[in-house]
Amino acid sequence: MVGKPPQLSARQQQLLGELFKCEDEMSGQRLHRAIQDGPFTMGLTTVYRNLRQLQQKGLVRCRHLPTGEVLYAPVERDLHHLTCVDCGQTEPLKGCPLRNIDLPRNQSQGFQLMFHTLEFFGLCKNCYQRQNLSGG
Hints:
By secondary structure, the protein is an alpha+beta fold. The chain has a single domain (10-133), classed as Arc Repressor Mutant, subunit A, CATH 1.10.10.10. The protein has helices spanning 10-21, 28-34, 44-56, 105-108, 125-133, and strands spanning 26-27, 60-64, 70-74, 81-84, 90-92, 119-122. The protein has a 3-stranded antiparallel sheet with strand order 1-3-2. The longest helix is centred in the middle third of the chain and has 13 residues, at 44-56.
């Protein structure tokens, strides 16, 4: 993000700190449980509200799973995944295929890019084989 760093509340700093401690992504519920022993306990609704504000500030990205669950991570972790729509298994991609892509100038003028997400959905090897063996 370009310019002055955004101002963060103590709660937002705590949530962001927990996300950085975790080497993977975290659901809002898991994050809620992780902060219960911290200095600023908060309800689940407050956790989600602050996660949304962190996302709007360009500090947190979220990933929606086919199950409806949402996972959060700091934007510095430029992670992308292959996700099976049957069993929900996800596998991270090594590197970002869009890292050096340029947005079309006629569409991106005046647009301040903060982060991006890239997800591929399909069938993992096991689910594909199971469906083909069963005639599905």
